[in-house]
C-alpha cells in the first residue's frame, strides 16, 4: 500500500514540470504542470509506454509528427519509440497526469524535434 498527498512533493522546476508522486518499482505517476510558453523536449522511450490525462488547460503534443491539441478530459497514450513533444502555447497554466510503465530508471532518449516532424512525412 502507498499513500501520499501531492503537497508532499514539489514540481521539478519550482512552479512547473513533473511532480512525481510515485517512481517505481513497476510504474511511475506524476502531476505535470506547464506555465504559458513552456515546453518539454522532444524524446521517446525504448521500453516504457506513457499515458497522459489532461486535468486543466490546453497543451499541444506533437507525436510522430502529428499535432494533437489536448484539452481537459483528453487521454493520450504513447507507445515505446514514439517521439513526443509537449508545449503550452496558451496564455494559461496547464496541468496533466503522466504515467510510465514498465518503470525504468533511465529510458528517456532526447531527439531533435525535426526527427519528430519528419515522421509524419515518412508515413
UniProtKB/TrEMBL annotation:
<dbReference type="Pfam" id="PF07883">
    <property type="entry name" value="Cupin_2"/>
</dbReference>
<dbReference type="InterPro" id="IPR014710">
    <property type="entry name" value="RmlC-like_jellyroll"/>
</dbReference>
<feature type="domain" description="Cupin type-2">
    <location>
        <begin position="31"/>
        <end position="97"/>
    </location>
</feature>
<dbReference type="InterPro" id="IPR013096">
    <property type="entry name" value="Cupin_2"/>
</dbReference>
<dbReference type="InterPro" id="IPR011051">
    <property type="entry name" value="RmlC_Cupin_sf"/>
</dbReference>
<protein>
    <submittedName>
        <fullName>Cupin domain-containing protein</fullName>
    </submittedName>
</protein>
<dbReference type="InterPro" id="IPR052538">
    <property type="entry name" value="Flavonoid_dioxygenase-like"/>
</dbReference>
Amino acid at each position: 500500500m502507498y499513500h501520499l498527498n501531492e503537497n508532499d512533493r514539489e514540481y521539478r522546476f519550482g512552479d512547473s514540470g513533473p511532480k512525481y508522486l510515485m517512481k517505481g518499482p513497476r510504474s511511475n505517476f506524476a502531476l505535470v504542470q506547464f506555465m504559458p510558453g513552456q515546453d518539454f523536449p522532444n524524446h521517446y522511450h525504448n521500453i516504457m509506454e506513457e499515458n497522459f490525462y489532461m486535468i486543466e488547460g490546453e497543451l499541444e503534443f506533437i507525436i510522430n509528427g502529428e499535432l494533437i491539441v489536448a484539452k481537459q478530459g483528453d487521454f493520450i497514450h504513447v507507445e515505446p519509440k514514439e517521439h513526443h513533444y509537449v508545449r503550452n502555447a496558451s496564455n494559461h497554466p496547464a496541468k496533466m497526469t503522466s504515467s510510465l510503465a514498465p518503470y525504468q530508471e533511465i529510458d528517456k532518449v532526447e531527439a531533435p524535434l525535426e526527427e519528430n516532424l519528419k515522421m509524419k512525412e515518412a508515413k
